[in-house]
């Protein structure tokens, strides 16, 4: 086979054009505008694009700067974010400080009580470059555990993804997650080109709320109330809080914090019990 060098930008433009051509044919066939029989080569075209995208990804994906790591004392895999990176290792769910015998001999409740900690509650999150050539899945729990209430409320307000309040979640992990660092490197490399690439980060609301329910119960209650249309309001005259649903049910007043008022509403309406 003969090879020639192609400028990366040219390859990127060709991929873009080919992609829109194939998408156009595919949707046209579905809508009956194009004849499927005349476009039987669409699968081969798709494969060609995937090959070109792979080449482009390899050329653009610079090895991320080395991330400081420690090794799991049981299996030797890298420990990232406090947990073993091998999902088959028990320390992928427990911190290294728990002795292995405790994990073998005790129940979940007993381990949690003895070491005053919780089994890992993962928070599923994804980041991808806008062209989706680079995608990484990660656990956003470490971000939640250090974020203040305002940052989490802002994330909830954008439905947990696709805006500034979720961008900061991915940025938080750049120094410790080489897959995420690689995506930022890729985006930066494109910034002075005509094909400047952004990224999008999405945190899964269900697992995010499950984490909050376990670790930040009062804040979780506030967000659940918001989802259910129950307003937690501040009484201006005496600086206490209460709640008010859409059907003119009201709490008795006098909760000292918004979280206490929200917890009262959660109990009254049995909210979030399925999760
Ligand atoms: Zn391990």
Secondary structure tally: strands: 8
Domain count: 4
Q: How far is the first residue's CA from the last residue's CA? A: 57 Å
Q: Which blocks of ≥5 consecutive residues have pLDDT under 50?
A: none
Computed structural class: alpha+beta
Strand order, largest beta sheet: 1-2-3
Helical residues, percent: 40-55%
Radius of gyration from the CA trace? 25 Å
Q: With helices defined by DSSP (H or I, 4 residues minimum), what is the helix count?
A: 11
Strand content: 5-15%
Q: Compounds present?
A: zinc ion
Mean pLDDT: 89
How would you characterize the largest beta sheet? 3 strands, antiparallel
Which outline best applies?
Answer: globular
N-to-C SSE series? Answer: HHEEEHHEEHHHHEHHEEH
Key features?
275 residues, alpha+beta, 4 domains, 3-stranded antiparallel β-sheet, 11 helices, 8 strands, 46% helix, 12% strand, binds zinc ion
């Amino acid at each position: 086979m003969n090879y020639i060098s192609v400028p990366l930008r040219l390859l990127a433009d060709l991929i873009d054009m080919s992609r829109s051509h194939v998408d156009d044919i595919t949707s046209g066939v579905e809508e009956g505008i194009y004849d499927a029989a005349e476009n039987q080569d669409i699968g081969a075209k798709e494969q060609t694009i995937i090959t070109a995208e792979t080449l482009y990804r390899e050329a653009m994906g610079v090895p991320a700067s080395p991330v400081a790591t420690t090794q799991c004392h049981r299996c030797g895999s890298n420990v990232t974010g406090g947990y073993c990176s091998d999902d088959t290792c028990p320390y992928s769910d427990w911190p290294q400080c728990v002795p292995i015998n405790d994990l073998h001999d005790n129940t979940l409740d007993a381990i949690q009580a003895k070491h005053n900690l919780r089994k890992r509650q993962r928070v599923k999150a994804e980041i991808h470059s806008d062209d989706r050539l680079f995608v990484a899945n990660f656990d956003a729990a470490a971000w939640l555990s250090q974020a203040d209430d305002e940052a989490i409320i802002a994330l909830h307000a954008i439905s947990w993804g696709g805006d500034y309040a979720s961008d900061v979640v991915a940025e938080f992990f750049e120094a410790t997650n080489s897959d995420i660092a690689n995506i930022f490197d890729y985006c930066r490399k494109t910034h002075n080109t005509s094909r400047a690439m952004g990224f999008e980060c999405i945190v899964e609301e269900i697992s995010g709320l499950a984490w909050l329910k376990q670790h930040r119960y009062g804040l979780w209650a506030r967000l659940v109330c918001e989802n259910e249309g129950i307003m937690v309001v501040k009484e201006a005259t005496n600086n206490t809080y209460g709640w008010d649903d859409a059907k003119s049910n009201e709490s008795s007043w006098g909760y000292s914090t918004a979280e206490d008022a929200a917890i009262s509403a959660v109990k009254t309406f049995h909210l979030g019990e399925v999760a």
